[in-house]
Design a protein that fits this description.
- About 40% of the residues lie in helices and about 15% in strands.
- It has 16 helices and 14 strands.
- The protein has helices at about 5-20, 25-30, 75-80, 85-95, 110-120, 135-150, 175-185, 190-200, 225-235, 255-260, 285-290, 310-320, 325-350, 375-380, 380-395, 415-435, and strands at about 55-60, 60-65, 70, 125-130, 150-155, 185-190, 205-210, 240-245, 265-270, 280-285, 355-360, 360-365, 395-400, 405.
- The strands form 3 sheets. The protein has a 7-stranded mixed β-sheet with strand order 4-10-9-8-7-5-6, sandwiched between helices.
- The structure holds pyridoxal-5'-phosphate.
- Pyridoxal-5'-phosphate binds near residues 162, 217 and 281.
């Protein structure tokens, strides 16, 4: 049988099993298509043949509309650090909802929330709130441009910074390329020489360098060999603003990735965990820069009808007050146990699967080359990942279809063991097809 035919046959078998398990998700999707383009309302959650729809969630589990229970390793792309419907968050939201949800002035809880954020991140002297991480990035770039009087942004290939044209990824999406190329320089991630050359050569045009605390959506790849420390030094030497995007990486340590790598960016963008599951984005940083937002200085414009809305504020406070050192240690230990368990499975089955990431955030890749940056992450085997994904869903494991696994505090070692067992079962089932279709993936995985 030809490779194409065999791949179509295996994929058809996995997708058929999925369809049979999820008729109600399919039904809901068909209805949704009448009002939502393609039955979807954000680019990231779609996978073939169609995504599941969720009925309800609690702790680290949820039930889909077909009644199947899943362990949630998705956690809304790293947001739900305390899992779903955390009792203290629910109580705080209930109470605030009865007292007003969108008001034309601030509520005192916002100050407590800001205090928690400033205390969490050493380099954040002051903070401003918005409604998405994309908005936080937009504001950071606007602030850098306002402060320096320059326009260009330098970003790294594969680092994701949301939905704002100068930084959006992938850069080849129609309608985005033009804006991106005009405003941005893109260099390979984890490549110090390329970054230094681009920064030095463009120092008179560059407003800011932006990079993630650890590359998230692009493949969950940690910075290596002092990469962030290096960027901090070179941006300082060339008088360019250094923005660390910690929208995902903030959860890795008290203090975020910048505490792990011992750097102080000029500006930090945040979102996800700080809003307790409600719409949020925040920009924080150096006092003198942040003061440009102040109404008394009024140099950089920052508006937003629902900025720091009371529901997000109280949910953020209730969440951050539960994020103790012990909680973060628990999450990171679970993440490392998961990564070790999965690596052991790949080794025993002699498959070139790799687990990248750190702490509570890891990504599974299938590749014969080491996954170390945006390019090598993009070049991994997505056909096999798709089959693996459907196999894991069938076994009650939910995570983003790009292979990311995210821990939440309600999880236990039993949940991790169940996930590792599921990986074992799925890869064992797929191994004959891997041997036929992708023989280059049989063998010992390269060190990533
Ligand atoms: C590192 C990073 N920055 C920015 C964003 C954008 O955040 P939002 O989706 O809330 O706009 C994301 C979203 O996943 C992200 O991962």
């Amino acid at each position: 049988m030809s490779s194409e035919k065999l791949l179509a046959e295996v994929t058809g078998k996995y997708e058929d099993t999925y369809r049979k398990r999820t008729p109600k998700s399919r039904e809901v999707l068909e209805k949704a298509k009448k009002y939502l383009p393609g039955g979807d309302t954000r680019s990231s959650i779609w996978f073939n043949p169609y995504p599941i729809w969720i009925d309800s969630a609690g702790g680290c589990r949820f039930t889909d509309v077909d009644g199947h229970e899943y362990i949630d390793f998705h956690n809304c792309y790293t947001t739900m650090i305390l899992g779903h419907a955390n009792p203290k968050v629910v109580a705080a939201v209930r109470e605030q909802a009865a007292r007003g949800t969108a008001l034309g002035a601030l509520v005192p809880a916002v100050t407590r929330w800001a205090e928690l954020v400033c205390n969490w991140v050493d380099s954040v002297d002051k903070v401003r709130f918005g409604n998405t991480g994309s908005e936080a990035v937009l504001m950071a770039i606007r602030l850098a441009r306002g402060h320096t009087g320059r326009d260009m942004i330098l970003k790294t290939e594969g680092c994701y910074h949301g939905n704002y044209d100068p930084v959006v990824y992938p850069t080849d999406a129609t309608g985005i390329t033009r804006g991106t190329q005009r405003e941005s320089i893109i260099v390979p991630y984890n490549d110090k020489a390329a970054a230094e050359k681009a920064i030095v050569e463009n120092r008179h045009r560059l407003a800011a360098v932006i990079v993630e605390g650890a590359m998230g959506a692009g493949g969950m790849i940690a910075p290596r060999d002092g990469y962030l420390e290096f960027l901090r030094r070179v941006t300082t030497e060339n008088d360019v603003i250094f923005i660390l995007d910690e929208v995902i990486s903030l959860r890795l340590a008290m203090g975020g990735a910048q505490a792990i790598y011992d750097i102080k960016p000029d500006l930090t963008t945040m979102a996800k965990i700080i809003g307790g599951g409600y719409p949020v984005g925040a920009i924080g940083g150096r006092e003198d820069l942040m003061q440009l937002f102040s109404p008394q200085v009024n140099k950089v414009y920052h508006a937003g009808t629902l900025n720091a809305n009371p529901i997000t504020a109280v949910a953020g406070v209730a969440t951050m007050e539960q994020l103790t050192v012990e909680a973060i240690d628990h999450l990171n230990a679970l993440g490392e146990a998961f990564a070790d368990g999965v690596r052991a499975v790949f080794e025993r089955l002699n498959i070139k699967g790799q687990v990248t990431g750190l702490g509570s955030l890891h990504n599974i890749h299938f590749s014969a080359q080491a996954v170390v940056d945006g390019k090598t992450a993009r070049e991994t085997n997505k056909e096999l990942l798709h089959l693996f994904y459907l196999g894991m869903l069938e076994r009650g494991m939910f995570f983003p279809s790009r292979g990311l696994f995210v821990m939440s505090t309600p999880m236990t070692r039993q949940d991790i063991d169940a996930a590792v067992r599921a990986v074992d079962e799925v890869v064992t089932d797929l191994k004959p097809a891997i041997g036929e279709l992708w023989p280059e993936l049989i063998g010992k995985a390269p060190q990533s």
